[in-house]
Design goal:
Structural class of chain B: alpha+beta
Oligomer: heterodimer
Number of domains of chain A: 1
Shape of chain A: flat
Distance between the termini of chain A: 31 Å
Number of helices of chain A: 9
Helix content of chain B: 25-40%
Strand content of chain A: under 5%
Largest interface: A-B, 60 and 67 residues
Helix content of chain A: over 70%
Distance between the termini of chain B: 37 Å
Number of helices of chain B: 9
Number of strands of chain A: 0
Bound molecules: protoporphyrin IX containing FE
Order of helices and strands of chain A: HHHHHHHHH
Largest sheet of chain B: 5 strands, antiparallel
Radius of gyration of chain B: 32 Å
């Protein structure tokens, strides 16, 4: 098994990423920033090379163990973070997605016993990784937007409303909402493959839908009343509560007792 | 007093705004509760083919033609405005919230939950009204931006048309969705009788026979643990590996070699032999070499199963090794399928890999979990959903719409405002 050389690949990838991030965050010149991006791109390529080699060695797609799926998380998170940065220039997002990607790689190096852990049959699907990835990104972005909103509410008590803050918030919500939509679609297609129907009003699905609808309210309200900033910020702060319920809380709800998302237990 | 009067006067005066929109939503909720109670909580009956597809066509036709004929009408303008959209999305969210907190279709339910429909939202007047209101608003909104068509509205149209198609076809398709189960016993005759959730029986256009239910398992992993503290020992990158015939590993000053590995074995005298019997377990004969003294001992280890005790070997007081119970890799049923013309085919239905035949999808659903791998029966879920292509078309539009949003963010939409 080629996992033995894994730490070497990870070290190379991480070094390139860290160099890249440092260059991008300390320089002002676009040229130097480009060098930083190239360094990060090479880090991604090394990770990709490792996955390809592993794939060839295993003679099957490396997607059957938790450790193997973590490799894909890292790959896609870093690629998406990279693209989103190129498009929107949000440094914090670049930092966040690469930090998460590095974290997943780290777990594989530090806790090798978990990468041997095999994935249950119902999760062995090509939809698993894309579904989880887009949700991770959506939650990160939307959570971020709600924090910015809370900050905005706090600031507005002193009668200053920061217009750029608001427009950044809008953009983050748009991107986060798009990821959330993709997460719902992937989840639905996967559910069809694995459980027979794309939508079963399972509590987990229901709460994901609720989260989606509330951010949808924000988008439409902003479109309609671009100058009413305070109510919009409140919608966003409230959405965060729903998002948290969706993430952690549903296990405690009475309706969650008959969740279908379990196989053969 | 004066204020009240002036408020009342502007209320319901066109153009309608948030207040009117949310009052309409409240009215819809009350109306649906009244209707539900009048029908004693029986809910609504969803149309099935061909009425469902006819309803779909009528909805589509009415939306477009009413818009084109009366686009200057105040009500239609309201129905394609953001306040109406916010109200209808809120209503849909409230209905989902009920689904999210109140257990659906329970055996016993409070009379109030039944008479309002909250405990069977899926077939309640409430979901009928909220879906219909949402579809009306999205529908007219699409028309507003569609006629005349402008290129820069493509992202907008993809998102809204996607959502319209998904909700319309998924709702109207519910009445045509068949989710049946068929229980098949190994070695029994062909069966074509499936049941639904209410135990009602249906004859399928094909029949099935179970040849074998299988759980394919991974090879077991070698467990190295401390029997005193009962904790596992992980050697970086080396422990918890699946074993096979040439497996070899060094732990502190011991080398462990697998000499013989039998995936399904039973004990025989002092060793293990290959066996197909019910409850056979994985077993391995290993040699342990003490690298300091070069002394070697060998013995059998197994994870145990029902009827067979686990066995382990102690290397030292703090070091024991054994096998972990194997983990499942795949559940599957090997079936023979026979159609109406008596054509037979052997197929395999695997978790996550449904088999399609004649507009039906067959899913591996369940098995006798007390017997696990040796289950004597398999339950196959038989699903037919003729609306699926339309729903998926909606997914595709929404998908493209999301990519538009990702790339253009809020900018693309700023043109109008
Ligand atoms: C996937 C879901 C949805 C997304 C991504 C979405 C997105 C948007 C966006 C970005 C706008 C601003 C359009 C622009 O400035 O060009 C908008 C407008 C609008 N949306 Fe949605 N929307 C969604 C669902 C809905 C739903 C469910 C409704 C109605 C119930 C709705 C009704 C409206 C209305 C009425 C407008 C204003 C259109 C206008 O004034 O021309 N949308 N939507």
């Amino acid at each position: 098994m080629n996992w033995i050389n894994f730490p070497t690949y990870v070290a190379a990838t991480l070094i390139l990423w860290v160099i890249g991030i440092i260059i991008i965050s300390i320089t002002k010149s676009p040229k130097a920033k480009k060098t930083g991006l190239i360094s990060m791109g090479f880090g991604i390529l090394i990770l990709l090379a490792f996955i390809v080699i592993l794939w060839i060695n295993l003679d099957r797609p490396p997607m059957r163990t938790l450790g193997e799926t973590r490799l894909w998380y890292s790959l896609f998170l870093s690629i998406l973070g990279f693209l989103i940065y190129i498009r929107w220039r949000y440094l914090w997002f670049l930092g966040y997605s690469f930090f998460m990607a590095a974290l997943f790689l780290f777990i594989n190096v530090l806790k090798p016993e978990t990468y041997e852990k095999t994935l249950m049959p119902a999760l062995q699907s090509i939809w698993f990784v894309p579904h989880v990835i887009v949700y991770i990104l959506a939650y990160a972005l939307l959570g971020m937007s709600s924090l910015v909103a809370l900050y905005g509410i706090y600031r507005s008590r002193k009668k200053v409303i920061d217009k750029t803050l608001v427009s950044i918030t809008d953009n983050i919500v748009y991107i986060g909402f798009a990821f959330l939509t993709l997460g719902l679609i992937f989840g639905a297609v996967w559910a069809k493959e694995a459980w027979g129907h794309y939508w079963t009003w399972d509590p987990k699905e229901t709460w994901a839908l609720l989260t989606w609808l509330i951010y949808m309210l924000y988008i439409h309200f902003r479109h309609h009343r671009p100058n009413k900033i305070k109510p919009a910020m409140w919608i966003l702060a409230f959405s965060f509560v729903v998002l948290l319920i969706c993430w952690f809380g549903i296990n405690y709800l009475p309706s969650a007792q008959n969740s279908v998302h379990v196989y053969g237990s | 007093m004066d204020q009240n009067i002036s408020k009342n006067r502007t209320l319901w005066k066109f153009p309608w705004n948030y207040k009117e929109s949310f009052i309409v939503v409240l009215d819809l909720i009350v109306l649906s509760f009244i209707l539900e109670a009048l029908f004693q909580g029986e809910g609504i009956k969803l149309p099935s083919l061909p009425y469902s597809i006819i309803s779909f066509m009528i909805l589509l036709f009415l939306t477009i033609s009413l818009f084109l004929l009366f686009r200057t009408n105040k009500i239609i303008q309201w129905l394609s405005s953001v306040p109406a959209a916010m109200a209808s999305i809120t209503l849909y969210a409230i209905v989902s919230l009920f689904m999210g907190i109140i257990p659906q279709n329970p055996v016993e339910e409070h009379i109030l939950l039944k008479l309002t429909g909250i405990s069977h939202i899926g077939s309640s007047w409430l979901i009928l009204f909220s879906s219909f209101f949402l579809l009306t608003v999205v529908g007219f909104t699409i028309c507003k931006r569609m006629f005349p068509f402008k290129k820069r509205n493509i992202g907008f149209l993809m998102n809204h048309a996607g959502i319209w198609i998904i909700i319309a076809s998924a709702s109207l398709g519910t009445g045509d969705l068949q989710r049946l189960r068929i229980q098949l016993y190994e070695g029994k005759e062909f069966n074509n009788v499936a049941i639904d959730d209410n135990k009602q029986m249906y004859k399928l256009p094909f029949s099935l026979q179970l040849v074998d239910f299988e759980i394919e398992e991974y090879n077991p992993k070698l467990l190295i643990f401390n029997p005193i503290t009962n904790s596992f020992i992980h050697q970086t990158g080396k422990s918890f590996q699946m074993i096979d015939n040439n497996f070899s590993i060094t732990i502190s000053n011991f080398r462990i070699d697998v000499i013989e590995f039998i995936k399904y074995a039973k004990p025989h005298e002092t060793y293990f032999i290959q066996s197909d019997m019910l409850g056979a377990v994985p077993a391995a004969k290993i040699t342990i070499t003490d690298l300091n003294s070069n002394n070697a001992t060998s013995g059998w280890i197994t994870s145990g199963g029902f009827g067979i005790e686990p066995t382990l070997i102690n290397l030292s007081p703090e070091l024991s090794i054994s096998l972990a119970a194997p983990e499942p890799k795949e559940y599957s049923s090997l079936l023979v399928i026979k159609d109406a013309q008596n054509n037979m085919d052997t197929i395999s239905v695997i978790v996550n890999k449904p088999y399609s035949v004649d507009g039906y999808n067959l899913y591996q659903m369940s098995y006798n979990d007390k017997m696990g791998k040796w289950s004597d029966y398999s339950i196959i879920e038989v699903i037919s959903d003729p609306w699926l292509p339309i729903v998926y078309f909606g997914f595709l539009l929404l998908f493209i719409g999301s990519i538009f949003m990702l790339w253009w963010g809020r900018k693309i939409y700023d043109v109008e405002s």
